[in-house]
Amino acid sequence: MAGMFRDIFLFKDYFKMRSLFLLVSLASVLLYLSRAFGLVASYPPSFFGPPSMANLLGGVIFGVGMVLAGGCMVGTLYKMGAGNLVSVFAFLGILCGGMLFAEFYPADMSFIKATTFLKSKTALEQIVGAMWMPVLALVLISCFCLYRWSRGKKLVQNAYAQRYLDPWKVAVIMAFIFSLSYVLSGRPLSVTKGYANLSARIEGLFSPRHMDNLPFFKEDSLRFFYGTTIKESVGSDINSLTITQIPLIVGIVLGSFFSSARLKEFKISDLPPWRQIFSAIVGGIMMAIGALMAGGCNLWHIIGGLPVFALQSILFVCGITLGAYMGSHILKRVVI
Fold it and tell me: What does the pLDDT look like over 137-185, one tens digit per residue?
């Protein structure tokens, strides 16, 4: 994700972004069909609330942090699993960002409450009046773009890595995986609250009394299977996060490690320059704060929310685009 946005603003290269567009478009069609056949029980998704300026601002903060860290919250995990030390520092920054966000969580909730609009609307179809209209518009645009890109051979490129898989093929596979997540659990994949759970556990080791006094680690509620709200704290030992998002985080790291080891590409990188270390830590902190402000990271909003045209996710994408633009200029002028 970070490379997709960064390449646009640094190199005017849209190759990776085309695959993301294909992923979102295909996932939108698959979810529409799933709803038509009654496979998705909760719609509009109850875990996407009404939009607020926190979604936009969180997206901006996340976008800047994503570029500075050299990867998004999932990208940080798989790069770390392959031995990238920059991503290790970004990972530490994300954990610190979760602890920092907990300190001003009440202020964030006040900001969300003050800036929420369209309080009875959560998805675009509730505004236009029909669930098929946004999907049809996206399909028409996608068909036109894919036709142009395929004729211009803009979906494939020469590659020299072993077992290289064209990004458009990955997009198709991931569209089915994310759609299956909706069908089986009623919600998209995410790692944001899993990171927050890790932050709570770490803070609890060093300052359990202070952690117990933080509302973010105590009062948060999670919408789990098919929109059913389960009241449980982010900081509790065993909850839905423990059995879903934590294994996902661990699985991404392990999957990256075994894949790179099998290809004999695993290598612990040299210690990066101090500027890059500082950039990674700050970027990780900003990603955590931005994702928690916006109610989810890029995985949640772009691949989970855009296919169902969630209004929160549309605002987040506008924010992350602006943030990636700002972050690219900061990266070029300050870090590099």
Answer: 999 999 999 999 999 989 988 887 777 889 999 999 999 999 998 888 7
Element (H, E) at 223: strand 221-223
- In terms of Cα–Cα distance, which of 304, 320, 281 is closest to 187? 304
User: How far apart are the C-alpha atoms of 268 and 257, rounded to whole Å?
Assistant: 11
* HSE-up (13 A, CA, CB side) for residue 237: 2
C-alpha distances out from residue 69 to 24, 79, 297, 333, Å: 24, 11, 14, 15
- Tell me: pLDDT of 241 over 70: no
Distances in Å between the Cα of 253 and the Cα atoms of 159, 222, 242, 246 are 24, 24, 16, 11
pLDDT > 90? residue 238: no
Give the domain extent around 98: 2-335
**What domain count does the chain have?**
1
- 161 close to 82: Cβ distance less than 8 angstroms: no
